[in-house]
Amino acid sequence: MDIGERSNLIGIIATTEMMTFVHSLPASAWTELNSRPKELEPNAGTRNLPSIFREIADNGDVSTKTFTNTTKLTELYTPMVQMVNNHYPDDELVVKQAVIVSIEPNKGVEPQAGPAMVHTNPHRVYWVLEGDYADMNYVIKDQKIDIGQGDVVEVNNEMVHSVTYTGSKPQYTLIIDFGT
């Protein structure tokens, strides 16, 4: 994506199978990523269902963690991965980090700019899974981005962005960081 763009709609994928699985999980699945890295503090209004998570140690070493539901989640988001790779056929992108984020009604994400990625050729892609999208304001660099259920959208999280959500039910988005 051109670094000057705010977002880019890549395509649309049905979310029923993913959300049936997500809704079947026990509450404990949302607590597996129990220590929130400092860079996630502006996201205090969210819950995270991790699949793959990269951690950077104080000495700069990078490690990748997997979780209880990684295998099933990976299976369910494979169509999104294929769509992104078809969109960028020359890049040979791989999943570096994947997490489903849930925003509860009347919560949000404070304004922030994404941290430097720990991989080359970064692409952050959202698969919008479920929520009241008329009641969601996703803003990148002072401009609202219109998104709806099933949208697969690359976003420029290096620009200041925020989310305000006033829907009546939780909102769910799969966020994947791709790299080469």
Question: Can you describe this structure?
Answer:
With 180 residues, this protein is α+β, with helices and mostly antiparallel strands. The chain has two helices and eleven strands; from the N terminus they run βαββαββββββββ. Strands 1-9-6-11-4-2-3 form a seven-stranded antiparallel beta sheet, covered by helices on one side. A four-stranded antiparallel beta sheet has the order 5-10-7-8, with no helix packed on it. It has helices spanning 16-24, 70-87, and strands spanning 7-12, 46-56, 62-66, 94-103, 107-112, 123-130, 136-140, 143-145, 151-155, 161-165, 171-179.
Strand order of the largest sheet: 1-9-6-11-4-2-3
Strand content: 35-45%
Number of helices: 2
Number of extended strands: 11
Overall residue-averaged pLDDT value:
83
Question: Pairing-aware structural class of the strands and helices?
Answer: alpha+beta
Shape: globular
Give the terminus-to-terminus CA distance.
14 Å
Major beta sheet summary: 7 strands, antiparallel
| Oligomer description | single chain
Instruction: Give the low-pLDDT segments.
Output: 116-120
SSE order: EHEEHEEEEEEEE
Percent range for helical residues? Answer: 10-25%
| Rg (CA only) | 15 Å
